[in-house]
Design a protein that fits this description.
This protein is of the alpha+beta class. It has five helices and four strands; from the N terminus they run ββββααααα.
Length: about 140
């Protein structure tokens, strides 16, 4: 397991949210101080993380855990290979290319949102989805 990577804090003094790589899969991670909780994450959650990162709507993450564009590219890239739907695979690959090519944030976001629209079980705002998942994770044992 690779150490956690944070995209930001949900509230100024609240937990950070991010991800951790376990083998070939990414999981949702949230932490506060030294406590880190990890849970499974589907494509919807992982794309919500990427969207929240590029929207820059969260408070600053802990500097030692802060995600980079490279981290985000790797996260989205991990969704491409196992994807069976050719259209979804194309959308994900375009999002990776946009991140890797350093395209403008609005271009990156447009591609991430297009991919998420295809995979989202419900059209919840990415930030609301992350808040719900982190709250559920925090309520766990």
């Amino acid at each position: 397991m690779q150490g956690p990577t944070a995209i930001g804090r949900l509230d100024p003094d609240g937990p950070w949210v991010g991800f951790v790589r376990v083998g070939d899969a990414y999981r949702l991670a949230a932490g506060h101080e030294e406590r880190v909780r990890i849970t499974a994450a589907d494509g919807d959650v992982l794309l919500a993380l990427a969207i929240a990162y590029f929207e820059d709507v969260l408070d600053e993450p802990p500097p030692s855990l802060e995600a980079t564009h490279g981290d985000m590219s790797d996260l989205v890239r991990s969704l491409v290979e196992p994807e069976r739907d050719p259209e979804m695979r194309r959308l994900l690959a375009e999002a990776v290319d946009a991140i890797d090519d350093g395209l403008a944030v609005d271009e990156v976001l447009a591609r991430l949102v297009a991919a998420r629209r295809r995979v989202a079980k419900e059209q919840a705002d990415p930030l609301d989805l992350l808040r719900d998942r982190v709250e559920a994770l925090s309520a766990g044992p």
